[in-house]
Protein 1
Amino acid sequence: MNLFCIGLSHHTANVATREQFAGNATAESIARQAGCAEALLLTTCNRVEVYAVSDKRISTDEIARCLMAKTNRDPDNYAPPFYRYEDNKCVQHLFRVASGLDSMVVGESEIFGQAKKAYESARTSGAVGPYLHRLFQRAFRVAKQVRTHTDITRGAVSVGSVAVELAQRIFGKLSECKVLVLGAGETSERTTRALVSRGVTDLRVSNRSLDRARELAQAVGGRAVPFDDWTTQCREIDILLTSTASETPLLTSEILAPMLWQRSDRPLFIIDIAVPRDVDPSVNELEGVYLYDIDSIRSVAEQSLALRRQQIAAAEAIIADHVTEFVDSISRGLNRFSQPTGHSSLGENPLHASDL
Amino acid sequence: MDRYLLIISTLCFFAAIVRTGLSLRARTFQPSRFSFLAIGLGFIFQTAFLYVRGHALGRCPLTNLFEVFIFLAWSIALIYMLVGPAYRLSLMGAFTAPLVLLLQGFALITPIDTRHLVSVPANSWLEFHASMSLVAYGVFALACIAGVMYLLQERQLKTHQLHSIFYHLPPLTNLFAAITRLLWWGFALYTVGIVSGFFTGHPLPRIQVMAAIALWLLYAAILQARHLKWLAPKRVAALCIIGFSAALALLWGITFTAELHHLP
């Protein structure tokens, strides 16, 4: 029996290619059509992969045909960029995928949930048996260990998540933070929602158009503040998120400095995602004020990604240990199992599904 | 025999530092229980040393600069064990262990473990005064460590340069709350220590008393300025470092003059 993985991902295929193979099959249909003993289908926006166990070799083309949408394209004359991993390599690949090492944004944790969902779906349909069960349970364990023992998931990589991460580094719990959203654009709405998802409840929205301010305030559970009053809010707020279309800075050191005396030493975190900027850069020089414009937010995101990339070696080491241990445990299990029946030792074979 | 206990204790703190240093160098710093356990073990050996030395002297082992430094290192480890878990375990340990190592290493290397030729009689008020003051110094040391962590975090946030350690430091407001609490606790203990000094029955050198009161006034001024919001958190954090440096200098001076005047 063979354990293998056949698939395509953002590394090998563009979205147009990937979408031809996504959503047309289920784990059960693949197992039935291709004649696999067990099969599991992992489909995300970045990958379509089939993990399967079979007692005969199943070609990549056969799996591709199972996955392919019914189009006018002649499947025999079409060579999609599928990759194929077998035995140990398949185990290693799955562990890397589940840990987020193979993701477009290294270390993203969404793939873990997607893999779990794919496993549950395949298990419910009866396409997963003992082999894939053990493999995936180990993969989830490895992913958790990688997340716990490395910084691979640390740091934020989008505007919203960077804002939330920095706010948490300054204030700890965000539930007691007062937030003023100045300007009601799409990015500020997304960032506001990210802050709300982390517990922010005191939310004020100000915009030149009061109607638009009310609209956003209602959408995010805040209250609208007249645009003329927004500067006075700086006396009591903790986070200012600004993204207006103003051509000149709305907030300068001269305006803010006198108000800082009345803030009882609470830090003020300003996220300025407007271009041109709404807040004069000199504001960052003021004591207790932390100003981040769009460039510095991008810079933080890049630093986070760089930090995650530095963790890859540590994560790979954990995965390598698990692959060896997993393969060894399977080999030991097979030797114990095979001795009475006189099967050949696994020492000659790396890993086959029968080893499982 | 007691020195061996101290050497083992020092090695435990050294192990905690090496572990942290290696993980920081590999940029894979992770809060682990190793530092906490290593410091805990170091603390046990420190306690054993103080017990053995105290038993041999028949009194609280605070008779020379060597013992004072070890007692201070023990106080710092004790306060860390008490308050460390409330914050980030190993990170506060990462800052605490080097300070303890510095004190113990210095005490072990330099020839300051001079024995009194005559047995020094025990004086419970004097022992209480000295030990309470040193525990207060331990609290000030932790406030100093929290101050260093605050300035490190603040600097990274201001300059937008976030390093691996950034994600393991506590939030700024939590750190500042910790600094404030530690300052109040240290100040209260130090006040008790100073007041108890007047009941020792021994005339203390004037310079020693003046210096101790000056340090008390420095911490009182920091707390008062903080209470009146005259000082920004960043300045309070910096003053915690200055305050503890002054406390260490004072400690040296007090012990030196005590030995000079053959005080118990």
Note: The CA atoms of residues 225 and 231 of chain B lie 6 Å apart.
Protein 2
Amino acid sequence: MSVAESMPDGSSAERQDPSGVVVAQNVSKSFGFTKALDNVTIIGKAGAVHAITGENGAGKSTFMKILAGVYRPDAGRIFIKGREVQFSSVHDALVSGVSSVFQEMMLLPNLTVAENMFLGREPMSRGTLSRRIMMRESRDALARVGLEVRPEWLVGHLTVSEKQLVEIAKGISTDASIFFFDEPTASLNNTEVERLERLIDGLRAQGKVIFYVSHRLEEVFKFCDTVTVLKDGKHVATLPRASLDEDQLVTLMVGRPVQDLFPRRKKCRSSLALDVRSLVPQQGAAEVRLQLHRGEILGLCGLEGQGQREILRSLIGVIKPHESDITRISKEGDASPLVPEAGVVSCLRKGVGFVPEDRKVEGLYPDLSIYENVALGPMNRLALFRLAPRVAELVKKIMKRMHLQASSMGQPVASLSGGNQQKVMLGRWFAAGVDTLIVEQPTRGVDIGAKAEIYRQLRNFTASGGAVLMISNEITEIIGLCDRIIVVRQGLTVFETAGSAATEEILMEYALKDTPPAKGKKKKGAGTSS
Amino acid sequence: MRQFLSRSESRSGLSPSILAIPILLILILIPAAGGFASWENLSNLSSQIAALVIVSLGQMLVAVVGGLDLSVGSVISLVTCVLATEGWPLTLTLPLAFALGASVGLINGWGVAVMDINPIVMTLSSMTFVQGVTLVWRNVPGGHIPKQLPFAAVGQTLGIPHSLLWLVLCVLVLTVVLRHTRFGLRLFAVGGNSASARLNGIPVRRITISAYVVCSMIAVVAGVYMAARIGSGDPKIGASFGLDSVTAIAMGGTQFSGGIGGVASATIGALSLGLISNGMNLLGVSTFLQSAAKGVVLVIAVCAQRRKSVGV
């Protein structure tokens, strides 16, 4: 039964369901062209743990941030204990009894553990900050999560998992009635996860409302009473946990027809373009081996933060890899080493283009014109003080080829839509004549029409002898576009398949689970592409 | 090792190399400059550096939230001129001086926190503006300070120079503000990472604006001290304080990226800078050469620090 269906008239939900302490009703939120949440209704009940789950970008974190006062919803209403609330800041939400443990670290490195735990609700006595109360209560809270650090230590010196535990201790020590946990276990070990489970049980016994935002299936099944699945910002289903098994849940998370967005795959794979014999992105990370051929689009996929981004960035030298042994083979067949340790500039000069995920900050110069942004590509290899040649004809040709919608090539890039900005980004590399592209999130913040155009451009690029290595959080995009797909989990390449044989279920199963599915599918080593 | 690293003192910006500077200077000056250790010179030193220490404390607050305030010098000049206005009693001029200081701070803070103007540009503008207003008020040094004030600055009680009392009082007040108030803690939070601070429910803009206001008010205190010391108004007296206070806190280890600094480090930085001037005066070094030497010392001091914010 879907909750949304039980209230077709949108009448005040709390009257129909007296146990709903938190009611988020028909909530919507957009960021530019992307609808992050679309008419979602979720009811949180006292003494219950409510899982909110879904793929990357399903809207889980957006939902939580709206209830935590970080974002204001575009539409919809929120009721807490029957009263409508409108949060204009995180502080408002805290006052209304909402405690949140965010996915991204919200601790301050230059403050002590105790100061961090009480920041925003500092205890006062006789007009001054009471460090005694802060120390005493944080010591208690740290003991509850079983963390052996002293409250007077600076958070900046803690390890990632210690920080996460401090964050949890901070969350549960708040005198709140509604608790949000956003992927709280990302860096915890098994013992710590078990302890978290007991803490959450304790909150449940006290009659609190607990929202548990996660895409980790084991935890959803272990901790939670009710499961809500979101997909592409839309509410898919809200079901009691008891009525679900893992496979059903995966189907709910995935279930969506692949739109007819993607160009047909062409069989044009030819010689090697990049031979990564060894790449260790960071000290202690797993060694990655892969080969990228001309004429193919190779996609790395996985859940967010599993290391696929680090693989790409260390390959091109944006972050310095710990170790690397990479050969680049030009169209003419000349092999030369690619040395990411020497930095991104030297890699780009070898004719490899990089399209970063945050094009406005890392890729484009938003205040400059289309001409200047594209012309940077061909000028990349010129000596620093050479006079810049006019390349207007080339830029015009690129604009036409990319179907770029702009009034003129003098238009500043900031005034373009996300899709057209991405075309400028790609156009820069096409103008530079690169034959290998490393692409992060090719269609982030891009509307559906421009998506199809970008896919077509990437496909044409490979058809004419280029090679593309990409990562994407959109699993449909990976399946629809890529010729070959590698699943990355915890920095390891755990599974490789041909794009035409991939399904969301298989990829998600490898991305989510510790153990590979026992359905007789052959697991191939990622490095050994046939 | 970890316990040592993790003590909260390491966000104060202090480090052994910073503490070594004034000690080294004193060890050099005692034998090199005759009369350095004399009671007379020390009390002279205290009256010379009191204003710089006070201004640097305010500058440090702004630096902790990741800002910079170049207008403090102009505020000092303005305050001396306001206090020296003929025929105006202290009961009028003192509140007026503080009100003017607060407005300058409010405008600086508004520009930086609300209009998102770079702190250097914002406070450079207000510095120029306030300097202009000061020159309109009084274009040459002169005027008269009611005589209660000079005693408060240059007198002695039980052999202790009053300048030292001004200095100690300001240090104590600022220590309490940073260590024992919500405002103090939140300054460090905003400077550490303003986005995280916001997620913790901290009103980031309000804290930033408050930092600039408090900094300007402290500059007013320094201005009152200066007026009392020279006994008249001087529209240019504060001109060097803007950059000197920045130099002082940099020497003390305060990080301009925000989140790291403290009363002790600002005081020690200002003391080091004061010792350099005082020592070179005693040694008879020309003022031009002094300025050059200060620049060299600053670069050396900053290079000797680890310029890494805690834990990042």
Note: The radius of gyration of chain B is 19 Å.
